Please model this.
Amino acid sequence: MKVYGMFLKSSLMGYMEYRANLYAALTMELVYLCSKLLYVAAIYNTGIDINGLSPDQIMLFIGTYIIMTAIYTGLFIENFYKLPEHIRNGSLDIYITKPLSLQFMATMRHINFVLPVPNLIAGVILIATACSRLHIEITFLTVLGYMAFLVSSTCVTYAIFLIPQILTFWTVKSYGIFEIMDRCWDFNNMPMNIYTKWIQRIGVFIIPVFFITNLPAKFLIGNLSEIYIIWTFVAPILFLTAARLFWKFAVRSYVSASS
Model:
């Protein structure tokens, strides 16, 4: 945690060093956020239920999606995108020599302080608005439970989006992997209820992209089955273990670019 605190400080200093780039990135993220919020406007203009979900309930899912987007872009996405570069130019060799976990250094080194800010603010506003309209009582236990589901979703996000990136140990260039990851993430911008039962099961239990934003929102609605509650605790352990084992296997195949 001490080293991670140093990473936070170093990343913040890097962003503050180039202010124009910081403001430009923030502006672009605001534009992207506005395009995502068009989903909310479209739903409210129709005013109809979608597979049993009211517009206010759908707002909970979209708000959770935006919050998780902030976490994903702030903590992970920059590190995942830099991994192929480290492998290709040999800078991963420097990380290997450090007296720390190589996986920790390579996948947690950079923290983005720009992209999460507008998403976090917008996500919290959407969640608060939806809870107010749905008359969901906001108590300490409700907030604690929702945060617990977000932590579980964050762990699953790290694992399932790292696993495809590990393939770059063999492919080196991974533009196609980036595109697939981005499209998979966009599956979460609407509730999984719009899909068939089999697609929902695959998206929760096998390739758990739906797990990320749907379970926290279902917790607030009070629509979580017992198996989903159990899976909330099991999935992070299972997929983090799978990511760790796959990482260790890939590192054994690593051939330094500088050698």
Notes: Residues 2-252 form one domain. The mean pLDDT is 87. The radius of gyration is 19 Å.
